[in-house]
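FYI - complex with iron/sulfur cluster, inputs then prediction.
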Amino acid sequence: MTVEINGKSYEVPAGVTVLEACNQAGVYVPTLCNHPRLEPTGACRVCVIEVEGAKNLQPACVTKVQDGMKIRTNSSRVTNAVKFNLALLLSRHPKDCMTCDVNGRCEFQDLIYLYDVQDIFPSEVRTITPDISSPAVVRDLEKCVVCGRCVRACSELQGMDIYSMVDRGYETLPQTAFEMPLYETDCISCGQCAAFCPVGAITENMNIRRVLEEIEKHDKVLIVQTAPATRVALGEEFGMEVGSISTGKMVAALRRLGFDYVFDTNFAADLTIMEEGSEFLERVKKGGPFPMFTSCCPAWINLAEKLYPQFLKNLSSAKSPHQMLGALLKSYFAKKINVPPEKIFVVSIMPCTAKKDDITRPQHMVNGVPAVDVVLTTRELGRLIKMRKIPYASLPEENYDDPLGESTGAAAIFGVTGGVMEAALRTAYELGLGKPLPKIEFTNVRGLDGIKEATIDFDGKQLKVAVAHGGVNVRRLLDKITKGEVYYDFVEIMACPGGCIGGGGQPKSLDKDVLVKRMEAIYTIDERSVLRKSHENPSIKKLYEEFLEHPLSHVSHELLHTTYMD
Ligand code: HC0
Ligand code: SF4
């Protein structure tokens, strides 16, 4: 189709919205309630444009282009309307931006500045007590701009419907049922609502201060571990391109922040494969229970415990990799460096907010102390690095510390949907059948389709596997399994869209292809790895020789496996 935007002609595909057409043409249209990964609603009226022949201004995000359409985005009528709508929102918004957790990273603040909006209307700021009930997510609805992105993220992507817009007009707010504290609802702590919030109304429950205090005191051995998915996203906080891999810079930054040891959660992902893969082979021998579900995603564990308790017996008993590493640090490593476990402080850098909730589980205590003391999201680490003015982009690439820093390509792909399944298959095949894999890549469990299925030939036995990511797809798959419509031997579940690359603690992004780009980065790390199968990791082999003996040993069960709450 041909459209005219601000007097210039452009060819655009049929069926796109005016907003998409303008974006493709490189013409800026401001947005607030719109997000490229959510259904548009046209609620905030910040993207209004003029269409020749139409009496009223139209919201660009929900108006479809028509052939020959004449659009104006830069008339004074449009600009005045945008300014007016923003000024109305500003009258309802607190003015404490300087002390807000998202100061400098707030879409609303940017628009107020960009449009030179003045505080012209009488203040109507509401007094609302923040909801700090959840260890994962904090809601401060005084700051809400009523864009509805949290509501849509929670329902469209996660299928959880925890929030709905309550009250009308000026009083509207995204509320939980009966305005219950978030932690008392069925919320699974995935943090998608926080990742999609354009302002500071929903954020992760921040723990930066606690970490800074420990660094300052430094009366404990300070250990940090980093998740597979943080290394392909942290760079975004520093203006690097989406999909940049900055593993070495991240390690270097963590050393400069003051950590004594920088270890890799990927090491423990390899360990998880050894334990979970062996558990699967054991179930094959014993005849079930099937399907076996992966257990590394804590939001999925929350979902299973709250809404699918019938599957708790099917969950692998393996702890998630960061908990395994925490447990080893406060036992094996503590002994190695001759420091009591209570004198070790472990921080996990995770793309995930549910891990903040996960570390509070009593099952994760080791030698009387929590295995992991604090979880920081990728976003929080970005802020910490900025606070210390560490020049991230120009840092040298440094390596993880030994021995809990070595990992394979199989561990790297944990960060993306299908990765845990593929890593497990690489190892289960070779350990179970005692012969090398004909092809290392299991491409049919890759990609961003919500539910993926594959039948794997295990030397004549046909293994049925499935992978689901994003709560809405996860629930669809679980409902089918419950009804007996489908059968699988092994199922990987990740609650967030894309798996951990799309975790609720990852840098916020308005790039609609953000998941594809981060996914490609993860597979690049795998391809570049010398070792690509968990059972080939020399440090893992050594750990079994020195300490754990063999997968599913007594020590492994004690430290690396867990139980769930009915
Ligand atoms: Fe993940 Fe993990 S892969 S859950 O997605 O298994 O958060 O990145 O750290 O623990 O390894 C998140 C990412 C992890 C864990 C690992 C698993
Ligand atoms: Fe919904 Fe996840 Fe937010 Fe909970 S944390 S309200 S489940 S999006």
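Residues 137, 153-154, 158, 160, 162, 187-193 surround iron/sulfur cluster (ligand 2) (CB under 6 Å). The chain has 18 helices and 19 strands.
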